[in-house]
Amino acid sequence: MTSVLLPTDFSDNSWNAIKYALEFLKDKKCVFYILHINTLSFTTLNDPSFIASESDINDIYIKPSKVKLRSILKRISQFSNTNLHKFYTVVDYGFFIDSIRKQVVEKNIDLIVMGTKGASGLKQIIIGSNAGDVVVKVKCPTLVVPEDCTYKHIEEIAFPTDFSSFNSFNTLKPLLSIIEAFNAKLSFLHVTKSKPKLNYEQQKNKDILEDFFTDFNTKCYYLTNTHLEEAIQCFIESRGVDMIAMVAKNLNYFQQILFHTRVEKITYHTEIPFLVLHEKT
Fold first, then answer.
1. How does pLDDT run across 218-228, given as a tens digit for each residue?
2. Burial (CB count <10 Å: 0-12, 13-18, 19+), residue 214
3. DSSP strand E in 120-201: where?
C-alpha cells in the first residue's frame, strides 16, 4: 500500500492538489495522510512576550484545524475510491519543513502531493515558498500540482536532464511505477546552447538511463536554445506533455527549470505537474 502525504493550508490550491492526487492514484491502494501544519515562525520563537501553553495551542490552533480537516474529508467522500483509499487527518504545530520531515519518517511516506500558486507576469519565484522548500529540503518524491493544473491521463512524461549525474534505481523507481501504471511514454530532453555533444560521463549516464527504461517507450530529444525554460516550454506545447519529472540532484540545473523565469510566456509551471525525485539518503 502506498503512503501519501497531502499537506493542506485549506486554500483552493491545496484542494486542487488533493483532487489531482485522488484521480492520479484512483486505481492504486493508498493510505492518505491529510496534514495541516500550524506554522511557528522564528520571529515568534524569538519573541520573549510569546508564551503559549499546551491548552492555548490546542484551543487556538489544533481544534479549529481538526474541524476544517473533517470538512475536507466530507468533500473527499463524494468522489474517492473508498475500496482502495484510506484517509487519516493530522494536525501539527511547529516549523513547516521540520513537520513535513517528521511525518515522512513516522508514516513511511512514499509520495508527497502538494499544490502551489505559481507565478504570474514577471514574478520570478515560480512555485510557492512552502512547495519550493519541500522539493529542495525534504528527501521524498514530491508531486507539485500547479494552480491551473487539472488531471488528465498521463500519456507522456518529459524528463529534462543534462546527463551530468548518475541516478540510482531507488531514485528512479517512483517514475518507473508511473510509466508502468499509465503505459506512458518517457521523453528525455537535453537542452544545449550549441550543437549537442556529450562527454564521456554524460554518455555513460545517458546509456544507464536508457538501459533502466529499456522495456518502455522512451526517446531522447536534443534541443538547442540559449534559455532552458524556453526550450522546455516549446517542447511541452508541441507534444502536449502531461507531466515533468526531474531529479533534485543537480541543483543548478534543477533550479533553472523550477524556480526562475525571465519570460512571461513560460507557463508550464502553472499548468503541468512536476514530479521531483530524490536520491535516497
1. 999 998 887 78
2. exposed
3. 142-146, 156-160, 185-192
Q: The CATH number of the domain where 28 resides is what?
A: 3.40.50.620
Q: What is the pLDDT of residues 31-41, one digit of tens each?
A: 999 999 987 65
Query: Do the strands 142-146 and 156-160 form a parallel or antiparallel pair, or are they unpaired?
Result: unpaired
CA dihedral 24, 160, 103, 81 (to 10 degrees): 0
Least confident of 2-16, 101-115, 205-219, 251-265: 251-265
Apex 56 CA angle, 55 and 60, nearest 5: 120
Residues 160 and 142 in one domain: no
Rounded Cα gap, residues 135 and 138, in angstroms? 6
Give 247's strand partners. Answer: 277
Q: What is the pLDDT of residue 206?
A: 92
At a CB cut-off of 8 Å and minimum separation 6, what does 201 contact?
Answer: 163, 164
Helix (H, G, I), strand (E, B) or coil at 1: coil
Domain enclosing residue 205, as ranges:
156-277
247 and 135 fall within a common domain: no
For residue 164, which of 232, 229, 235, 247 has the smallest C-alpha distance?
A: 247
Asked if 132 contacts 161 with a C-beta cutoff of 8 angstroms, the reply is: no
Strands (E), the chain: 2-7, 30-39, 85-94, 111-116, 142-146, 156-160, 185-192, 218-224, 243-247, 274-277
**Residue 191, φ and ψ in degrees, nearest 5:** -115, 130
Point out the domain boundary residue: 119, 146, 173.
146
**Other C-beta atoms lying within 10 Å of the C-beta of residue 217:** 12
Q: How far apart are the first and last CA of the chain?
A: 22
Query: Which of these, 182, 164, 166, lies nearest to 275 by C-alpha position?
Result: 182
pLDDT band for position 147 (50/70/90)? confident
